[in-house]
Write a structure and sequence with these properties.
Length: 437
């Protein structure tokens, strides 16, 4: 039996241990709050649990609450620097298992914060009391992305049990704040955690994804003129009213137009991405009273961009200006909006990265996934992930690879199959063995 076969056989013989580890992590309600100055319940407890697991493996660990304001001042205008973040009670965790020396190092990284579970009525199980049903683990974060965190932890643990040592270091990091902008990863890189290559275990259906989208969050502010909805209106150019609901419709119709144009724009498409870049309307707030014409509206948008579109700061400045110009043109088409144009406030700019397909780590990783009986075909990660921060700022070329269907992310009844967990753990363990020797 070859070493690769020995590793695979040992992991295949112990699926319950991967499941138990994941269930432990899922039981912590490490919810990221919309107020970035507040610690979510369970964030610290989850990291303390993982710290004990890392120390049991002989890792030197570092658990710290980042200094959000200081980080912002240091990296203002750069990826990951989000104003107003504080991290009291929201620690990052890093661990290092030293190799014997002379080998290439690897960083395994992920986030432990999860989005809120939403209405309890939409769940068939308690989102923070994980259950195994039909060979799938259910719970908030099972896919995004505690399943991946469990796999990367267990990959190291299984290798140790087999007595496999490495020349290169194994670096393990879990961060907070990913779901609201990625400043936790910025803090991790700033802390000095880096390696020759990295795996971020975001859900990718166990496919190597050396590419992710950057995202912009923006709020379009639309000013109409309120009035009694049931009465004959005066003209728009006198007292009004002017219905902000209709104005929002016009703007969203204009967003549909640019999405149709981007569908065939080479700059907005990538061969590894299933879909072109899009402007997605994710929130809509219009109106003040049931019998009043809406005087105000807000449209929240999520705008995607590719690494090739990044500006000189590594962010989406070019795409911001493109969206602003299109919004201005939409307003020019309407006499009222021409005089009272909608404005956009940018909320977030989260960067992206792309690792070349011929990079030595990508090729080593492809060899490992073949031995784990997975496809080596590369794919794009359609959502945003934090790989841009370790790749760009940390000089650690990092790819996405993790268990589960990405479409399960943020959904009620989030679940990941045990088979996916086992395959992911095998692929990571085999990659460590090949890369760090």
């Amino acid at each position: 039996m070859s070493l690769s076969e020995k590793i695979s056989a040992h992991i295949e013989a112990n699926p319950q241990r991967i499941v138990d580890t994941l269930c432990d992590i899922l039981s912590f309600p490490s919810i990221v709050l919309t107020d970035p100055t507040q610690a979510g319940p369970g964030e610290r407890d989850c990291q303390l649990y993982l710290q004990k697991r890392l120390e049991a493996l002989g890792m030197t660990t570092d658990l710290w609450d980042p200094d959000g304001p200081a980080l912002y001042e240091k990296y203002k205008g750069r990826p990951g620097a989000n104003k107003g973040r504080t991290f009291e009670g929201r620690p990052n965790l890093g661990g290092t298992l030293k190799g014997s020396g002379g080998g290439k190092s690897i960083m395994l990284t992920g986030h432990i914060d999860v989005v809120p579970p939403g209405a309890r009525a939409h769940w068939n199980t308690d989102p923070f009391a994980p259950q195994v049903i039909d060979q799938q683990v259910f719970g908030r974060g099972a896919v995004d992305m505690k399943g991946g965190v469990a796999c990367m932890l267990m990959a190291v643990e299984f290798l140790q049990e087999l007595g496999i040592t490495h020349a290169g270091d194994i670096v393990f990091t879990t961060v907070v704040d990913e779901e609201i902008g990625g400043m936790g990863s910025l803090a991790m890189v700033d802390r000095g955690f880096k390696a020759d290559a990295g795996i971020m275990t975001e859900p990718s259906a166990n496919r190597i994804a050396p590419l992710c989208h950057g995202i912009l969050w923006g709020k379009i502010l639309v000013n109409g003129v309120g009035g009694h909805a049931e009465l004959m209106p005066n003209s728009w150019y006198s007292t009004g009213p002017v219905d902000a609901v209709q104005l929002c419709r016009q703007i969203m119709d204009g967003i549909d137009i640019i999405n149709r144009r981007w569908q065939f724009d080479p700059k907005k498409n990538h061969p590894l991405m299933e879909l072109p870049n899009q402007i997605l309307v994710t929130q809509l707030k219009v109106g003040e009273h049931a019998s009043s014409t809406a005087g105000y509206g807000e449209i929240v948008i999520d705008v995607q961009y590719l690494p090739s579109e990044k500006d000189e700061f590594g962010l989406g400045g070019h795409v911001k200006r493109e969206v602003e110009e299109h919004l201005a043109n939409i307003c020019l088409a309407d006499p009222y909006l021409r005089q009272h144009p909608a404005k956009i406030e940018w909320i977030l700019d989260a960067d992206c990265a792309e690792i070349p397909s011929d990079h030595p780590f990508v090729q080593t990783f492809q060899q490992a996934v073949i031995e784990a009986d997975l496809s080596p075909v590369l794919s794009g990660f359609g959502a945003h992930s934090d790989i841009g921060l370790p790749t760009g700022l940390g000089n650690t070329p990092t790819v996405n690879f993790g268990p589960g269907d990405p479409a399960q992310s943020h959904q009620p009844n989030e679940r990941v199959s045990i088979a996916d967990l086992v395959s992911c753990t095998k692929a990571i363990a085999l990659t460590i063995e090949k890369w760090c020797k």
